Amino acid sequence: MTDARTYIQGPTRRPSGSPYLRPMETMVRLRNVRKEYGETAALAGVTLDIRPGEAVAVMGPSGSGKSTLLNMVAGLDRPTSGEVVVGGEEITAMGEAALARYRRRRIGMVFQFFNLLDDLPVLENVTLAAQLLGTPRRQALTRAMELLEELGIADRRNAYPVTLSGGERQRVGVARALMNRPALLLADEPTGALDTRSGDQVIDLLLDLNQIGQTLLIVTHDQRLAARCADRVVEVEDGRIATEAAR
């Protein structure tokens, strides 16, 4: 059986042609990032580094700025000031087209409410990310089936999302996020819509991914998820990092 690293991340030896893929000490770097909405500062000068292969959980009360922080790294929102660098690329300097390419090629995203397309079966939901990148359909299908096998849901490939359990839907979401072998996986409350058993399954999955080298940035209220998966927990309050603690 092929090593899980090949299914999830691709070959251990990465191509040397792209500066994004060269070894680096910092996968994510935020410097004095501020985001204002009118007179309200959702982020008030956040500085944070995440190393390749590290799992970081961002926690804090509702409205603390943790989701805004994730959106900055995802390139879904732009800071009012400050710098966001991911994989050696300053995404704050990118135009909209470049940001769209960045999201497709460099990161994978897992959402609280799955964000699956209800009118497409599982296999088509998973391949969509690769097809948007221009991957040939046969290659995308092969990759999707490998991921579904690895995540234990290949038997549900022709099922529609409405027929799946919450845990199964989140596994489909993870498979879709991993389709393009992202260097960085972002997860926004990945256990928030799940019961305890399904949440534990997703926690196990994220832990397994990190143990084979996947860099994770997780926004969560789930203490179990943070305790089991995170190398470091960052507490955000009022748009600032209040504390950082390594496990």
List the helices and strands and how they pair.
Elements: H1 4-8, E1 28-37, E2 40-50, E3 55-59, H2 66-74, E4 81-86, E5 89-90, H3 96-105, E6 107-110, H4 122-132, H5 137-150, H6 166-178, E7 184-188, H7 196-211, E8 215-219, H8 223-229, E9 232-237, E10 240-246
Parallel strand pairs: 3-8, 3-9, 6-7, 7-8
Antiparallel strand pairs: 1-2, 1-4, 4-5, 9-10
Helix pairs in contact: 4-5, 4-6, 6-7, 7-8
Write out key terms for the chains shown:
alpha/beta, Rossmann fold, six-stranded mixed sheet, 10 strands, transport, ATP binding, P-loop_NTPase
Outline the structure in words.
Helix content is 34%, strand content 25%. The chain is α/β, with parallel strands linked by helices and 247 residues long. The protein has one domain (53-75, 96-246): P-loop containing nucleotide triphosphate hydrolases (Rossmann fold, 3-Layer(aba) Sandwich), CATH 3.40.50. Helix 7 (196-211) links the parallel strand 7 and strand 8 (215-219). Helix 6 packs parallel to helix 7. The radius of gyration is 17 Å and the shape is globular. The model is unreliable at 11-22 (pLDDT under 50). Residues 28-246 form the ABC transporter domain. GO terms for molecular function: ATP binding. Keywords: ATP-binding, Nucleotide-binding, Transport. Residues 1-20 are annotated as: Disordered.
